[in-house]
Amino acid sequence: MSAADVEAVWRIESARIIAALTRFTGDFGLAEDAAQEAVAEALVSWPQSPPTNPAGWLMSTARRRAIDTIRRRTALTTRYALLAADLTTDSPAAEAPDPDRIDDDLLALMFISCHPVLSTESRVALTLRVVGGLSTEEIARAFLVPVPTIQARITRGKKTIAAAAVPFELPPAAERHERLGGVLSVLYVIFTEGSTATSGDRLLRPDLAYEAIRLARTLAALQPDEPEVHGLLALCELTAARFPARTAPDGSPVLLEDQDRRLWDFSAIHRGLTALAKASARGLGPYGLQAAIAATHAAAPSVEATDWDRIVVLYEALGRVAPSPVVDLNRAVAVAMASGPAPALAIVDALAASSRLSGSHLLPTVRGELLTRLGRPAEARAELELAARLCSNPHERSVLLRKAALPG
Questions:
Q1: Which of 174, 171, 31, 153 has its CA nearest to residue 115?
Q2: What span, in angstroms and rounded, lies between the C-alpha atoms of 43 and 140?
Q3: 247: helix, strand or coil
Q4: CB 34 within 8 A of CB 14
Q5: Residues 6 or more apart in contact with residue 115 via CB below 8 angstroms
Q6: Which of 279, 342, 372, 396 is most buried, by CB atoms within 10 Å?
Q7: How is residue 127 annotated by DSSP?
Q8: Any long-range contacts for 373-380 (C-beta under 8 Å, 24+ apart)?
Q9: Hey, is 253 helix, strand or coil?
Q10: DSSP conformation letters of 70-120
């Protein structure tokens, strides 16, 4: 077996292995470290002696590494005796994680990785590391930060969890529902960075976005009665469906009105609509409403044929349940398409006066577009140039500069 085979097994099985080890050891950091040591050993031994049960091999080896660490720390303890008893046989059945606990283990692992005692940066890094199975190098490359920065976030996160004595268990039902929003927000941050990179030389980072979708699917399977889980999954699937048409061969952005909709991923659209139907069963929350907006775009044959009045209504509903300046700005874009640029500019000007999007390139981008449509080219050019200066993604910046240079 090659290193790629080891990596593939790890990507699929890592969350289950770490979750089971954490339950056995009661130590989140120890579990993650032991699992990593098992992978390092697999890279050496598997090419010469491939195991018949790769996941079981990793679990068994990681347990032994955990035992070695516990022995060094505390000699023979009750917990060590319990762990050692599980290793009395080398049969594949004994090496595999307990099938009756897998769902609870994975869910508990997600809640620990996204625990409120952690910063958002640590939550994202830990989730991608221990639930997603990504290496520190992959995470650093995805977010365009140095590897030591990601390593520090992961280390700091594990130390914070240990210091707070966070137990490896599912929160009580009421608290679980309350903390679910934190888990969803982490997955949303991961997907958003993948769908529109905040910096770097690429508009899209599909691998990161698809990892968020994979984690959202896992969460939906573990929490099938939570509508917002399905809402987030629907939003991600419907947004990712447009990826094939969002960039030109040279990586430059293709605006919605110029996209070849035949390139959209209709399988992803179908999956997104299925998830949206599940989310709608109990009423749409913030993620479900955003998914409904994405579904309206997906159903339209063109920008002109889009039901913009429906999108305006959906943004108004979203603004009531999850108010934010970005929601107001997106509503202004929809109003411009449904009713013209003048009423939309009034919304944008009110946002500008509030300074709630100060420093963001989004507001001058929309304002520049609206001023262009209103026949005010000099003002539009100034806004688009400002937006380009504020934008950190070079591909988006080039589009803004190109628009600013167009004759009025």
A1: 171
A2: 22
A3: strand
A4: no
A5: 123, 161, 164, 166, 179, 182
A6: 279
A7: I
A8: 373/336, 373/341, 374/341, 374/342, 374/345, 375/408, 377/407, 377/408, 378/408, 380/404, 380/408
A9: strand
A10: HHHHHSS-HHHHHHHHTTS---HHHHS--TTTHHHHHHHHHHHHT-TTS-H
pLDDT score at 99: 43
Cβ contacts of residue 63 below 8 Å, gap of 6+? 21, 24, 34, 83, 86, 87
CA distances from 94 to 53, 55, 372 (A): 11, 12, 68
Question: How much is the pLDDT for 171?
Answer: 84
pTM listed for this prediction: 0.79
CA distance 288 to 324: 16
Tokens read off for 180: 């679910």
Tokens describing residue 10 = 């790890």
CA–centroid distance for 226 within its chain: 18
Which residue stretches of the chain have pLDDT < 50? 76-77, 80, 88-100
Paired tokens of 178? 């309350």
Cα distance between residue 252 and residue 314, in whole Å: 30
Residue 27 CB contacts under 8 Å (≥ 6 apart), including other chains: 162
Distance CA 203, CA 320 (A): 31
State residue 92's pLDDT score: 43
CA pair distance 398, 252, nearest whole angstrom: 8
Closest of 334, 331, 389 to residue 360, by C-alpha: 389
Question: What is the Cα–Cα distance from 321 to 311, expressed in whole angstroms?
Answer: 15
